[in-house]
Amino acid sequence: MLGQEAQSRQQMNPLIGVEFFSQKKLDACTHCGLCLPTCPTYRELGLETDSPRGRLYLMSTAFRDIDPTPLNEDWGKYIYRCLDCRACETACPSGVHFGELVEEARAIYELNTKRPKKHRLWTNLVFKGLLPKRMRLNLVFELLWLYQRLGIRSLVRRTRILKLMGKMGEMEAMMPEVPTPTLKYSLRKLSPAIGKAKYRVGFISGCVMNQLFTQTNLATVRVLQENGADVLTPRKQNCCGALHVHNGVRETALGLARQNINAFEGEDLDAIIINSAGCGATLKEYDALMQHDSEYAEKAVSFSGKMRDISEFLAEIGIAQPKGEIKRTVTYDEPCHLVHGQNVHAQPRQLLQSIQGLNLVELKESEWCCGSAGIYNITQPEMSKSILDRKLNHIADTEAEIVASGNPGCILQIQLGIRERDLPMSVMHPVDLLDCAYRGVDPLE
User: Fold this and answer.
1) Parallel, antiparallel, or unpaired: how do β-strands 359-361 and 426-428 relate?
2) What is the pLDDT of residue 154?
3) Quick check: helix, strand or coil at residue 445?
4) CA gap 219, 126 in Å, rounded
5) Mean pLDDT across the stretch 239-256?
6) Considering all CA atoms of the chain, what is the largest pairwise distance in Å, rounded to the nearest integer?
7) 2 pLDDT above the threshold of 50
8) How far apart are CA 400 and CA 90, in angstroms?
9) Phi/psi class of residue 248: alpha, beta or left (left: φ > 0; alpha: ψ in -120 to 50)?
10) Distance between CA atoms of 273 and 220, rounded to whole angstroms?
11) Which residue, among 100, 72, 85, has the nearest Cα to 42 in the 3D structure?
């Protein structure tokens, strides 16, 4: 049942889904402008409509007024040109939940706008037909592994085929080496602690993480085991829905959230661990996503309350000192959805500083977006590249051997930039470095 305020708004405003828009969170904005210097698109373009304050005004005109502004193409352009990096949330003195607002705005836009056929086909293929279907996802990445292993990739890249494939071609250009398919099946349902168990935690293996960053998933579990945790990885979990939420595909995201909550329901866990910053921010906000679901609202609050980023959890419990050394120079890039979305700032640095021999060099503007932002580097390639260039200039200045970052999209984006500039650097997750220190191996050998 809708509340009285929501019912009133629905009667005044004919837009589908507007009754679920967080009006009180919108009204918290005082239009002070302190968010403007932190916004990458505003810094690049200098347009009020490409600032957090401007976008909130666009939402207000469409969702609050009795005679709403049509959700036309220009309206959608400004709402979707936002990276959803949430740096404005960190800067905002009024505590505006901009990320939730822009995601709700996109959902309402998708419900009230007829997209071109090509866009609908893309959405149905990726967000509905692939990411939520684990077996299909396995098959696609196994075929990609063969495509790379058999040398077909090298042949294709010598032709113009990728340019003709549009977005699919751009995705292929970013694709790293796909791990051996059998590797992901070595992640067990229950991985017992080394020595006496002090904690029992759940682990979200993810969709892209499980396919492209299998070694990082295995490293995460090993590090948790090393620190006295029994690790439960339920087989019935699925994609977290982060990309769906970011792109307005809300109904599919709700279905995925219900599936993940069900997968962990009834388990006595100290925490549920995630090693992907973008996924973690969404998982921690299942309570906001599902607040209007009478059956799952309370379950979502409990689920979100247990979510922890791997660095956050390890910092909370205090880790066992790694015995191995890593004599490498490392710099740390802060994923937006970790530092701004989850307020996890110092913990990854603490973990890196615990590794003997490691020289941690601070990265200028480490909290500034790299331009990945989910699939932003595909949907907004020019803006993404401009933002990445700013990041790469600072990364190059560090002269680090390794760039550490705790989000798959950031890792892929920065890897692409480093490869294009031919910089002598590697990119990896902080937990991979910690795992190498526990095992006494050099991460670059």
Assistant:
1) unpaired
2) 79
3) coil
4) 28
5) 97
6) 66
7) no
8) 27
9) left
10) 9
11) 85
Angle at 299 between CA 298 and CA 304, to 5 degrees: 100
Collapse the DSSP code of 33 into the 3-class scheme (helix H, G, I; strand E, B; otherwise coil) and give the result.
Answer: coil
Residue 146 Cα distances to 130, 162, 267, 329, angstroms: 19, 18, 38, 35
- Where do we find the tokens 């956050």? 312
Closest C-alpha among 181, 252, 237 to residue 204: 237
Q: How far apart are CA 186 and CA 255, in angstroms?
A: 27
Pairing of strands 190-191, 229-232: antiparallel
Structure tokens at 41: 């698109």
Quick one: tokens of 78? 């400004």
pLDDT (tens digit per residue) in 303-362: 999 999 999 999 999 999 999 999 999 999 999 999 999 999 999 999 999 999 999 999
Q: List beta partners, residue 229.
A: 199
Determine how β-strand 271-274 pairs with β-strand 199-203: parallel
Dihedral Cα 239, 245, 251, 257, nearest 10 deg: 40
First to last CA, the chain: 59
Distance from C-alpha of 62 to C-alpha of 70, rounded to nearest angstrom: 7
What does the pLDDT average to over 254-264? 98
pTM for this entry: 0.93
What tokens were used for 329? 């120079």
Burial of 293 (0-12, 13-18, 19+ CB in 10 A): middle
CA-to-CA dists, residue 333 to 38, 269, 339, 345, 412, angstroms: 16, 30, 10, 11, 13
